[in-house]
Specification:
The protein is mainly α. Strand 1 and strand 2 form a beta hairpin. The radius of gyration is 17 Å and the shape is globular.
């Protein structure tokens, strides 16, 4: 489950390096999707959900890899309606992937009768979902106000990462034999 945490870390956190007119994310999203793919493969037998979401993660790894290489070479552009549409679809697919992984973790909780913090993950995911929807709507209507929604999205990202870190620790406890039961 540690691969999920690190995957989402790379996917949702952006640290950009700007040189002249080019911007490059030094935490490439495609690395995050490759980490998610490894985590999905490792936990494949824990839930059928993990196998079902793998094609989406592969698609996003390829898509974000192409964007990253394009940014590295200075050939990808932003600001067009097509890039905005692709960004919207990318966000939706990314949110679907994270939701599906949380559903798989919920199945793992039932299977092991343990608490892997899926409730915290789902709450953080909902904050992230609402913040993303509001920010896209505000960007169309009142771009200045979208900053507030983007700050809420940052809070959702932090909550999601903390929730996955806690889930990772709980999973490690189960593997070590010190099970954290749901009632505790």
């Amino acid at each position: 489950m540690g691969k999920f945490f690190w995957g989402f870390f790379f996917i949702y956190l952006n640290f950009n390096l700007s040189v002249n007119a080019h911007t490059l994310n030094i935490l490439p999203e495609f690395v995050g999707y490759f980490l998610l793919l490894q985590g999905l493969k490792e936990l494949d037998e824990e839930s059928g959900v993990f196998a079902g979401v793998r094609p989406f993660a592969v698609g996003m790894a390829v898509y974000t890899g192409i964007l990253w290489v394009g940014a590295l070479l200075g050939i990808t552009g932003t600001g067009s309606w097509l890039s905005t549409l692709l960004n919207l679809v990318s966000t939706a697919v990314s949110l679907y992937i994270s939701w599906a992984i949380i559903q798989g973790i919920r199945e793992m909780e039932e299977r092991h009768e343990a608490d892997f913090n899926s409730a915290g993950m789902l709450l953080a995911w909902k904050v992230l979902l609402v913040a993303n929807i509001v920010s896209y709507v505000l960007m169309l209507v009142l771009p200045v106000a979208a900053v507030v929604a983007l700050m809420a999205a940052l809070v959702g990202i932090i909550l999601l990462l903390v929730a996955f870190w806690r889930g990772k620790k709980c999973w490690e406890a189960v593997q070590a034999g010190t099970i954290r039961l749901k009632d505790e």
